[in-house]
Each structure stands twice: as structure tokens, then as C-alpha cells.
Batch of 4 targets.
Target 1
Amino acid sequence: MTSLTGNWAHRAWQSDVGYSFRTSPMAVVAAVIAFVCVFCAVFAGWVAPHNPMDLATLELSDAFLPPSWMEGGNPKYWLGTDDQGRDILSALMYGARISLLVGFASVALSVAAGVSLGLLAGFRGGWIDATLMRICDVMSSFPPILVALLIAGVGKAVFPDAGHWVALGVLVLSISMGQSGWVQYARTVRGVTLVERNKEYVQAARVTGVTPMRIMRRHVLPNVMGPVMVLATIQVATAIITEATLSFLGVGVPPTSPSLGTLIQVGNKFLFSGNWWITVFPGLVLVLIALSVNLLGDWLRDALNPRLR
């Protein structure tokens, strides 16, 4: 198993995509930044100097401490503390974990729904294609943020405890964001499928008696995943920003387990009182994550485009 994994990693590193990655300094820097952010978020329990989610360890006397390099700062809190005495650096790691979880979960839901419906519409055609595309037109006419707010509000009404349980809050946010993101994947996959379904390998599979479902799954799907991967990479950054927007508006996880958007919302209340670090540092981390993911998406789009090789 180790040998197979090593051989696969070696082939991937020596492939055209691997060469494109090695020769692109911007992609390497973006990958390093994204890896550091994801690593600190996933292993926040071990990396973070404090546990800002443990209310028993918070000291209100440590509230509003500036960063350690400023006058009045405490070396224990490198980036200062918020209004509840939580360490900003630790809160950023724990908050990024929730933001990344919601971002990846919502994109996964969008990909699953969009790819399935796009394959069906493009391969079958006819009234199925027309109906699904009209649904896409209707969904595209609504602002995604308003639809997400509506679904999140309904979800909180159905699950009143969503404001107290992190899992329910993450679930409501993921569904509310995922439902508006599948349209782009459906349109993209449909367009590629319309081209692929008329190619020789698909016609040959039909002649040999392969079922349409197997043709879509085994033959067409692998050939449409390139554009989907590029779109999904870029949409992760958009989903993280959307989650921060919803959390800033008060629709999200409970304040006791804040995401980056919730931290920005809390800090915004004290921005003009001189406590700028409470909102500036979460905002910078949000920009850093979104920028690194967007740069990786741009690189992947160019790397998978045969015309640019």
C-alpha cells in the first residue's frame, strides 16, 4: 500500500499538472498559505495556545487586551483578546475550522446535486433537459444571499436548537448555501455532457449494450470532472465568504463557538472605540484564506486547459 501511494504521488508530481505547479511560484505560495490555514484549523485543539470555546477558562479581567507588541499587551495573547477575554489567535484557529467546514460542506452538496442534474439533463435531453434548465433559470433569478437567509431562517424555525448546537448551525448554513450553488455546476456539466454524448466512445458503448446509467457514470462523468474541479476550488472561497456574511448578519453558529464571520461581527461593535484588533485580524484571515484558494483555482484552471500547455 505504501509503495502504491508513493508511486502515485511520484507520477502526480512528474505529470503535466505537477510540472505546472512546480513552475508557478504563485501557486506554490498560495498552496503553502492554504495548507497552513487548513492545518491550524483542523488541529486547532493542539496548535492553539488557548481554548477560547471553554467558558470556564475565560477571564473577563483580560478583556480588550491589545496585541502583545503594543503598550498594555500581554505576552500570553499575541494578537490580543476580545470583549470576553478570549485569545484572538486561538479564536481565529477555531473560527477558521467552522468556516472551512461550512465552506467545504456546502460546495460538496452543490457539486453532488449540480453534477447529477447536469449529467441527466445533458445526456437525456428532451423534456428533462428543458425542465431542469428552466429550474436553473428560476434559481438564478433570486439573489443567493437572500435565498440563503430565507432557508436559514426556516431551518432555525424547524430546529429551534440550531442557535445553541454547533452541528445544527453548520448543517443549516451548509444547506442554505449549497442550494444556491448547484446551478453553476449543473449548467457547466450539461454543456460538457452535450459535447461528450455524441463522441465515438459513447456511441460505441451504446452499441455494445451498456446501460445509459453506466455510460454516464463510467464514461461521461470522468470527462466532465475537470471543469467541475476548477469551479469547486473557486467556489470554496466564495462559500467561505458567504458563510462569513451570514454569520455577520446573525445567521450561523452560536456565539459561544464563533466562526470568522461571527468574530468580525463582534469586533465591529468595538472598531471605533479603538479595539481594532478584534475585527481586523479575523478579516485578514478571511481575506488570506479566500485569496489563497482563489489563486489555486486560477492555477488549476490554467493547468487543466490543454490550449495553454
Target 2
Amino acid sequence: MSLFIAKRLATLVLTLIFTSVIIFVVMEILPGDPALLILGIDAPDEAVAALRGQLGLDRPPLERYLAWIGGIAVGEFGQSYTYQVPVWQLIGDRLEITLPLTLLAMAMAIVAALAMGIYAAARHNRAGDVAVMTASQVGISIPNFWLGILLISAFAVGLGWFSAGGFPGWDKGLWPALKALLLPAISLAVVQAAILARVTRSAMLEVMREDFVRTARAKGLSRRAVLWRHVVRNALIPVITITGLQFGFLLTGAIVVEQVFNLPGLGRLVFSAISDRDVEVVKNCVMLIAFLVIGINFAVDMLYAAIDPRLKPADV
């Protein structure tokens, strides 16, 4: 098992390095001067040269890349040109909204998907199965930003149960903060829950056809006992893999949903930084999102090895 972890760690590190190189090349080396983009094409040459020196663009690319990666390694993300504050301070403030929003949406999606998928598989080819598959197909077809607009119209404008947007802050209390994140989380979770429900149903139906399930039934175990003791655990293996991939979709989907609900999260920061041509903020935000997605998939690999009885230390 230690060899398995070492291999996955090596893959994690190599993936992060490759990702950082791509981000750096796209943001700072491809044609286009970041200083000129910030100041505009009509800016005086002296101002452009001064800004290039301030941003460190007058140094060789390799030196800039190593300085950037070295800074990230010790928690130094550089200075925002627009806000004139450390980039990590900006990101930290916005993560207090985006990360809870993503985790809340992920929890909603997992609970709803497992319930729907298990229910559909247990009632294969019956009315319950057809209803769940129809609902999941509708859920997959709905864009999360459009669903967010519908939720605002129904529950904020129509019923007045929620605010139409904004975030009160965690210092105002846990419930007001969670209430502000509830509608955005639902709009994010619906599509992912629909996808995961279909995966859960298919995985369970596949496991139900295995010989060990028929053997368990032949030994006298009830259908319910076989379902929960044997089928569900083995069916969770592909479900967990898909769940790790979905975290990335939720995190990137939150960028759009935050715009709909006027949430001052990481998505708003990225949009503002792109509009203001704040290269340092954009570069570090993209790298952080990549790190979170890659890290979650590494954790999924570890969980996969822990729950799969077929994976022995010699096999991995």
C-alpha cells in the first residue's frame, strides 16, 4: 500500500508541476505584454517599462517561474496590482464563501444521488425506476445558472423566503450565512445529483448481476440484507470516482453561479481580475483551483484503495 501511495503522490506532484507550467506559459510567455494589457496600448513607454519592472516581467522567464512557484510553496502569492494587497489575502477572503458553497452543493448532490440511485436500482424497470431516470434526465438538461434564476424568481421574488443575492458574512451567524448559500448550492447540486444518480443506479445493477450476490441470496439472506451488505458497498467504488471528478465541475460551476447570486466568492474575484487585467490574481486563482481539483482526486484515489476489497497491497 505504501508503494501505491508513493505512486499517487508522484503523480500528484508531476501533475501540479505540469499544470503550473501551462498556466505560467499562457499568462506570461505567449504573445502579449501583461504590462501593456494592464495600462492599455496607448500608455507611454516609460509607464509600461516601470510596470514591467514592478511586476518582474523584465527578468528571464525561468527565473520568474521559479520565483512564482517558490512563493506559492511558502504561501506568498504576490501582490495584486488592482487592489494593492497580497493576493493570498484576497483569495482567503473569497474562499470563505466559495469553499462552503461547493462543499454544501457536493453534500446535497451525494445524498440525493445515492437515495435516488439506490431507490431506482431496487425497483428496476418499475414505475419508481422510470420516475427517477426521467427526473435525472431533466436535471442533466438544466443549466445551473438558469436554474439559479428560476430559484430566485420562485423563492426570493415570489415567496420571499430567501434574499435574491448577496452574502451577510459568517460574523452575522451560521444560519443567515448558510441560508444565503442554500439556493446557490441547490442550483449547483441538481445537475451533479442527476448525473451521480444515473451512475449509482448503473453500478448497482451491474453488481446485482454478480455471482456473489446470487450466492448470498442462495444462503438465505433477504433481498434487503444483500442490497445493503453487499451491493451498495461494491457499487460505491465507481460512484466515488465520479464524485471526485464532479468536485471540479462544482468548483468551476460556482464561478458562474456566484455571478447569478451576487456572491463575493472566488468566481467574482476571477471575473474582476480578468476585467482589470490583474495577471497575478488570475494566475494564482487558476493555480489554486487546479490544486483543489487535483488534490480531491488524489484523496479519491486513497479512498478507492481503502474501500475496494479487490485491491491488495501487492496489486497496487
Target 3
Amino acid sequence: MSFDPLIARPSETLCLCPRIDENTDASSTRRLALGFGLAVLAQALALAQLPQAALLIAPRAEQIGWPLALLLIGAALASFPAAALVDGFGRRAAFALGASLGVGGGLLTAFGMTHGHFPAFCLGALWLGLAQGFGLFYRHIAASALGGLRVLAGGALAALAAPLVVHASEFAGGGAASLLCAALLQLAALFLALRLPHGFSKVNASVSSAAAVDGASFRSATHFALATLAGAAAWAIMAAAMLRGPLSLALCGAAQSLIGGAMAWHLLAMYGPAALAARFPARFPPLASLVAGLVLLAGAFASLRLSTSPALLAAAMAAVGVAWSLANIGALRLLHEKGPPSRTALALHDLCLLGAAAAGALAF
């Protein structure tokens, strides 16, 4: 492989890295899907423990939602740094940094939980959120909507193992063991990130430009706004359900194993439909999937609020996951329907979604 000698300068060594077209690199897509899957497994373990641990160690009742909200705030704060680092330093450095934060966050939350130290627990949740924000950007690296769905499908495959991993970690030592296991999964994601191609994706920097006035650009901006606003509503409801579900199960006297299992199956429901959408994309039209997801999400959340039995609560959480998945499939396909958006637009999209999720958790 030859390189332009004019750019082979010590101050610009990053320019030597070849660009990669993810549309033709199946191996790269598989690695991205595996990295996203590890992030989903770590998320399952963290989400199964944060609300219940906060219920035990939070100084005041109104602070119970803080750890989950900080996790989501951290994910939102990571949106723009993740986009900037992927472009400026390559995916290897960006995703390795995110996974490193996840390792520290898992260890710190385990420490805060075992020692009853709520500030340390909240700081660890924030770090886990920063790692999750980097992990979510895996789905945007694939240059097309179908590639992004394939990465989401990797999350579905990982979520299949979530119930087993959650139960095994709880059997090994309870909540602290689950958080330590989340740290180990982030460590595995770190090693995977170090094996990713150190390249830079080709992106369309002109999408959603404020100066664009032609019809195609207007439709792209409209699709971006619709996907972002509808996706933000879906994430807000999902975050409220993630906090309300485990706490409602605990108040109903459900066993710890049932609560962890319900969260794991909820995660599987969140990503399972993406595997079908990646295999049969024509059966998931963007706008129809988005509308159906939002309608079903409202009904599932209402059922979650009204249910009083553990079985119905667990079923409602799974329904929330499926509805959220449909809404996100529609939003992702709508976002990429008129071509790949710029990294800035994708970061803004994630920031709005995760900010709405944090607001939903705090509002509960």
C-alpha cells in the first residue's frame, strides 16, 4: 500500500492510516457488532443493580433515581467526544477510551455499593454512562442504516446471554459481583477495541448544513428532526420504565433473581427486533416502525404503571423493550434514508436521545 509522501510528516502521522469503507468490510462490521454486544451485556448488569442499590444506600428517597440519571447523563455527555475522537484519532483510540471508563465505573460502583458510599456509587454510574455513550456510537460507525441494524443485531445476540450472565453474577455474590462482572466485560471491550482497524470512516460532512436550501437537503433535515424528536420521546419513556420496573418489582416482593431476570429479558426485547430488521429490512419501513413503536410504547408504559403483580410487571417491561426497539429501528433508518449524516449531526442526535432519557429518569 502506498501513501502520499507529502502527508508523511511527524506532525501528521495519523494521516498515514488508510480509510475504511464499512459498506464493503464485513469483518469490520462483525467486530463493531461484537463491541456493541459487550456494551449491551455490561449495560444489562449495571441496569439490573443501579435502581435497587440506590434504594438501599441513597440518603433520601428523592435521590434513588440519581445513579440511573447520571448513567444516562454520562452517555449524553460522551456523544460529542465520541464523534470527535472517532474522526480525530480513529475508532481504536475512541472505543478503547470509552471501555477504560467503563472498567473504572464498574469497579467504583461495586466499591460504593459494598461500602454504602453513595457519592462514589453515583460517580461510578456516571463513568459507566460515559462508556455507554462511546459504546452506542458503534451503531453509527457502519456507514448505512442496514449496517447500523446489523450492529444492533449484535446487541440482540449478546442480550440472549444476559439472563444467564445476570443470574450467574448474582449467584456468585449479589449486586457487587454483577457490577464487577460489568467491569470485566468492559475490559474485554477494551481488548477488542485495541484490535479494531485504526482507520477513519468516510462521512458526509454536508448533511444537515444550515446553508443547504435544495429540496434533498430539506428532506434530510426534516427526517433528522423527526427521527431525533421521536427517538427522544422513546428514550424518555424507556428510561422511566427502566427505573420504575425494578423498583415496582421490589415493592411487590419479587425475588432478586426475578428482578435481574426481568431486566435481562427487557434488554433482550430492546435489541431482539433489530436482528429481524437486519435480516428482513423491507418488513420494517422507517416511518411505520417509528409510529408503531411510539404507540406501543405508550400502551406498554401505561400497563407498567397499572400492573401490581410481578408477572405482569415483567411482561410490561419486555413490551416496553420491544416497542422501544421498533421506534429506534424506525429512527435509525429514517436518519440514514437520505444518506449518511455528518458526525456532528449523529452526535447531536445521540445527545438529544440520551438527554431525554436522563430527563425521563429524573421525572420519575
Target 4
Amino acid sequence: MNKSELIETFAAQRDISHKRAEEVVNMIFNSMSEAMISGDRIEIRGLGSFVVKEYGAYTGRNPKTGEPIEVKPKKLPFFKVGKELKERILDGK
């Protein structure tokens, strides 16, 4: 499912306009993005949690030439699936 399919499903299930459903979905995604940018952890019971992992700098290798290159430190979003969702997927329900 992509974002537009989520909006369509939400609009149909809640019997609201496509425009209103899109506003709500965008508001949720923007709030989640802002929270992670400011370093907050997001936990949605029954689904999982979103965190930002920090990786330090290291020396890597260019795969073509084999030359060492310096890789800068970075922050990346990470999703950890919750127990309830994991069990639902395993059970196929």
C-alpha cells in the first residue's frame, strides 16, 4: 500500500472527502517526521516504533577501486516492528 492508497482507504472507511483524508494523513506524517527530526521516539501500540539511529564516521572502501574513503557520521530512521503486528503476520490474520 502506498500513500495515495492509504488516503483512498481512509476516506472510504470514514466516509470523508478525499481532500480531508489527504490533509489528515499528511498531518500525521508531518508530525511523525518533525518528532523524529527533533530526536523523539514514536511508538504506536500494535504496530511498532520509529527511532533515529546515529552512525559514527568510519573508513570505507570504494567498491570499484578499492580505495579507502571517509564516510561521514549520519542519522537514519529505523522502524522496529511491534510484537502484536509480528504475531498477526506470522498467523496470517
